[in-house]
Amino acid sequence: MTKSVLVLPGDGIGPEIIAEATRVLDSVNTRFDLGIETSEALVGGAAIDAEGSPLPADTLARAKAADAVLLGAVGGPKWDSLEMAQRPEKGLLGLRSNLNLFANLRPALLYPQLASASTLKPEVVSGLDILIVRELTGGIYFGEPRGVHTREDGVREGFNTYRYSEPEIERIARVAFDAAMKRNRKLCSVDKANVLEVTVLWREVVERVARDYPEVELSHMYVDNAAMQLVRAPKQFDVMVTGNMFGDILSDCAAMLTGSIGMLPSASMNDSGQGMYEPIHGSAPDISGQGKANPLATILSVAMMLQYSLQSPEAAEAIRSAVGRVLDQGLRTADIAGPNDTPVTTRAMGDAVLNALKV
Ligand code: IPM
Ligand code: MG
To answer: pTM of the full predicted structure?
Structure first.
């Protein structure tokens, strides 16, 4: 049976990292005879330029019909002055909400070869293996009402709404508990229940779901403390579950523990196993078009895609071990290069992974 993957390169470094990731996908597709068919579409700034919308109807329809979506990155200074509803980021957020991709899995795994690339001491981060489960289609990112208006007293005011319903909390909690059961059975739920009612409800619902998972050790942490603990003693965490905005912030923080945000893949899933896969980093306009970007986060996102949406765990493992071998060989893009390394280009890194796959 053929499986379809929609590839959305997007903006900035997106096309460069996607080019390497699709070469890797093509290679495992042939080697493992996976029957994957890929096609490409526009999203973000590229779609605004070509079609006047960050998420053209054709792109959305094809994303819905695909078994999985592979996305590079969206956004850039060129589109920063557009009004919110027209910005490239709306393409990404629209895909997340229209495909109902509520469960965002962001593993922060430190490759031992990169222990010294982190800004933290190697002993603090070595062996690090955290999974952040971020709710992705609710919370303050999507809450209504929202906007900027002029009050009766003539003062302009901006506002967003932080909302979560019980079912929304429950389903992400279940994803997190299920993930914890497959790992070290420790789950930390991150909230701000000392200030925000919505997260008082969050905590209550997570406690309730916990009764179905007696083997998982559940703890709760306020988000400010969680940010501090992530840089103080990150290895205390196994799985973390949190809302959309806190998860956005904490996952960037966790990414740096692994040496570079250029290393972290992500999966965004819905109830039917359909998923969108993307590096957690952005479009990095400052280095785009220069061959400096690290394609490994996107290549590792392909591995997650093969594992979670395309039922090809062997191919996923082949990619992960190829990445490990490339790091063993000492190849480093600029973001993970040490003082004595000569950084390699995006393409050279992609070539090295392809070669390592043949071994
Ligand atoms: C992420 C990004 C996005 C987010 C942006 C690009 C809209 O930061 O995936 O973490 O805020 O979710
Ligand atoms: Mg982010």
So the answer is: 0.94
